[in-house]
Every structure is written in structure tokens, then in C-alpha cells.
Design a protein that fits this description.
It is built from eight helices and 13 strands. α2 runs parallel beside α8. By secondary structure, the chain is of the alpha/beta class. The structure holds S-adenosylmethionine.
Amino acid sequence: MICDYEGSDYQSRFWKNADRSYEDAVERVAIRRLLPRTGRRVIEFGAGFGRLAELYTGYEQIVLLDYSRSLLEEGMQKWGSDPRFTFVAADIYNLPFVSGVLSAATMVRVIHHIADVPAALRRIREALAPGSSFVLEFANKRNVKAMARHTFGRQSWSPYAAEPVEFVKLNFDFHPRWMLDQVQQAGFSVQRKLSASYLRIGLLKRILPLRTMVAIDAVLQRTAGLGLFSPSVFLQMNTQGSTPTDQSALAGDAIFRSPRSGLPLRRAGDVLVCDGDGTRWRAHGNFYDFKEPVS
Ligand SMILES: C[S@@+](CC[C@H](N)C(=O)[O-])C[C@H]1O[C@@H](n2cnc3c(N)ncnc32)[C@H](O)[C@@H]1O
């Protein structure tokens, strides 16, 4: 089951018309700290409208992947004319990439919509080359606010229980211990952790200047080693194995394979054709649609 953002007003409602400059700024601080600045091919899984895209411009190729075509189209309005960008409409559970073709990845504010975390992490791991960096943000159920609400009987679920809590349909919070187990089982080794957004409190946002909030958060992010109690946690992981894949051998359409069968694709006008499984996928300019095959 997929949390479908098709046609949603996510950009205007959640970011532009809401007071979330603090969250946006501290997420950028965390990604700048964790993601290598430069490299061959970076992808953001669940990139939405490309809010964080400028953080990737040190890379030779930037892939923004999302299940929502309409959000990707919003991203294309800003970044579509930059030849480094590729936009991919696809489902994280059915990725259309040749194994090991990606050299770095991020996923921010997305895994809380993923019901089958092990399956999604396996797919992501497979698409990344050995030695790649993967920066994952997840919503932490064992955060200070949840612990206080639980203590005072204002929240039925325990923030200390390891299993994920689905507080609204297809919206999950995760215990750090549980998430660390999942990423390790999927073949990632955790290098660094950051605790972000401790100051996500309406009153503080009203009284403190944004710059002060971000400066305090930047310090608090580094307390992750003492325990993860922030609402948002960033992990920087490496894929195990030390021999990087030769990324330059694959370019253009050659990075893709059929998400149905994993078999190769060939270009025929504005479609990619899979002779092996008979599917055809829309490919127009730098926009590729792997949500459903065309007839
Ligand atoms: C809360 S938004 C975050 C967008 C972006 N990462 C950001 O932080 O601005 C969640 C995004 O995840 C995408 N998403 C959810 N489930 C997905 C799936 N199975 N495959 C691909 N994208 C998915 C949604 O379409 C949506 O754009």
C-alpha cells in the first residue's frame, strides 16, 4: 500500500503556507553534514517537489524519484532545464534501476509512509553501488514529547516499545533501535547519527529568531551519541563492500531496467521497451514514468 500524494498541495500547504522554516533549515544542516558534497550519481527517494534538490548540485547526475507525478512536475518547473537532473515516477518497492548504478542517496520524510520497511530498504540497497552513502531520516517514536505525553497518560501507545506505531493510516513513527536493526539487516553499516528538530515547539518558534533556533539545533544534532530523543533522526550509512561500481560505464537510459522483471530496456522513441517481459514505459526528455506501463 502506498501513501499517494498525486495531485496533493503538499508544497504550498505543508511548506509555503505553514511555519516550517525551522524544520526545513535544520534538515539541510543535517544533510550537508552527512552527504558527500560531490560524486557521480545521487538519488533522492521520495523527493516530492524537490525541496532539497539544491543540496545535490555538486553531483554529476541528480535523480529525483517520487510516486507522485504531479509533485515531480512541480520540481521540473524549477530544475527541469538543468541537464544534470532526471525525474523518475516510480514506487520505492519496485525500483527501475540496474543493480549498483547509484552512488549516493537520501530519503527524508518518506520512510514514515512505508509499511514494509525491510522490503523498501532491500530495494534501495540493491540499487546502490558498494561503498555508497545513504542518508536516511526517520520519525522517532521515542521523542521527548511522546515520552512526556505517555508519562502523563495523554498517549495510549508506549514510546519505548520497539515496534513501529501507525498513528494515522500509513504514517508510522519508529523506535531508533528497531530502525537500526532494519538498516543493518538490509546491508547498511551506520557511520553517523544526528538528532534533529528538538525545538519543534510552536512557542519556541514564536519567540526565538530562526537563526538562533537553527544554531541551537546544529549543536543538539551532535548529541545523538548520548541517546536519540529528538522527533527526527538522521542516519548516515554506507553500503557494505569496498569496490565501487564503474558508474561512468552506465549513463542515460542504461541506468534503468524493467521494474516488473528486472530485464533490460531499449529506447524506441518516447518509450523504453522491455523485450523480455513485454512492458513499455514512458520516457520523455528527462522524465521517466515507471508507475504503470503504457499499452
Ligand atoms: C512527506 S513527503 C516528503 C517529500 C520530500 N522528501 C521532502 O522532504 O520534501 C513524502 C513523499 O514520499 C513519497 N512516497 C511515499 N511512498 C512512496 C513510495 N512507495 N514510492 C515512492 N515515493 C513515495 C510521496 O509521494 C511524497 O512525495
